[in-house]
Amino acid sequence: MRRKSIAIYLILLFFLCISFDIIPIDNATDVLHYYIKNSYRETGSINVVTSIYLNYRVFDTIFETLLLLISIIGIIYFSRHEGDY
């Protein structure tokens, strides 16, 4: 019974989260046009997606990669060692 109520709660929370607009469309298009106009001048990259990924969000990308690596190391460590933890 408890698992079912938790599952229902998570499903309702998911649908509640996707029902709201997080960024209004007007603000999103302003940011889009800024990146399209200024990405080559500010970063030197011809591709806009590459300039956003590697130049504007470089620290975010590095820390996400580091977090993924630490998670994988933890999973490997706990799966190879036997015993009660």
How would the blueprint of this fold be written?
Layout: H1 2-19, H2 25-43, H3 48-56, H4 58-80
Walk me through this protein's architecture:
The protein is an all-alpha fold and 85 residues long. It has helices spanning 2-19, 25-43, 48-56, 58-80. Helix 2 (25-43) crosses helix 3 (48-56). The protein is flat, with a radius of gyration of 21 Å. The mean pLDDT is 83.
Which percent bin holds the helix content?
over 70%
**Rg over alpha carbons:** 21 Å
Number of helices: 4
What is the makeup of the main sheet?
A: none
Q: Overall mean pLDDT score?
A: 83
Portion in strands: under 5%
| Number of beta strands | 0
Shape: flat
In N-to-C order, the SSE pattern is: HHHH
Give the termini distance in whole angstroms: 28 Å
Structure in a nutshell:
This protein has 85 residues and is mainly α. Helix content is 81%, strand content 0%.
Observed structural traits:
85 residues; mainly alpha; flat
